[in-house]
Amino acid sequence: MEEGEVRLTQQALQRIVREYTYEAGVRNLEREIGRVWRKVARFKAEGRRYPNLIGASAIERYLGPPQFFNMEAELKDEVGVATAVAWTENGGEIMPVEILLMEGKGNLQITGQIGNVMQESAQAALSYLKSRSKNYDLDGDIYDQVDIHIHIPEGAIPKDGPSAGITIATALVSAFTAREVRRDVGMTGEITLRGRILPVGGVREKVLAAHRVGLKVVLIPKQNTKDLVDIPKRARSEIKILPVEHMDQVLEIALAPATKKVRQSRSTDNKPTRQITKNSAQETSEVKKSGVQVNSPGESAPLQPSA
Fold this sequence. Notes:
Strands 6-7-5-4-9-12-13 form a seven-stranded mixed β-sheet. The chain is 29% helix and 20% strand. It is α/β, with parallel strands linked by helices. The termini are far apart. Strand 4 and strand 5 (91-103) form a beta hairpin.
């Protein structure tokens, strides 16, 4: 075959990258493109018709069914579901965090094959929520009357690291206050018991993952603003990156207004948990939203994927 005789469209190349390779480099990409060329060359040698321009829809004909399926962003705002952006050895990924509350005795269950560091982040996030119960109109006794299930989907993949801390905290507050989490917001950052947000690693890969799936806003620790210089210009122009340094700022951005119901503890006659309507949609946090907004869009331990 002569040079330039057959070409791939940009969309076709993008589909090969996303659905047929899963790596930080380009070795497998080169291999898959070679498979396409060899099949086209065979068609030519056999005197069969072959395309001069191969589009995305034709890739499956040459490479077979897709080998990898990327996690997609949520389709709507939901209560108890927040989106983390994670680092993996193959690049960035998004990682939804799901919280389910059930009537129980205060047990905490964490599933999704997560490591010790992420479990500790979940414990810290819950302790932070308990310490701020009055800010969210929650009775302190409610935590002894419900069981909390935290789940990270794709349970076959090991996950660890501290950077999902603020995501778990956001999903917990959402579940207990019945406030929806914005589906277009991704976040990363380690949380402390006081609600401070500590820096994490892999910011470049995480922002690119958020950009790839169509998120509009990414929250990163303020101390990670130095990493924004590594973000490609196109991603920086199409996604809003907001540095934050406290959980109050995260919740103000990520949660919908508090117009729904808030969980309260059982009454003394041991009746089931009662729901009451929240009177105000105003956030009780006194900490102002971060004044830094980086229009250039745009933990420590490597994760598999890392939170």
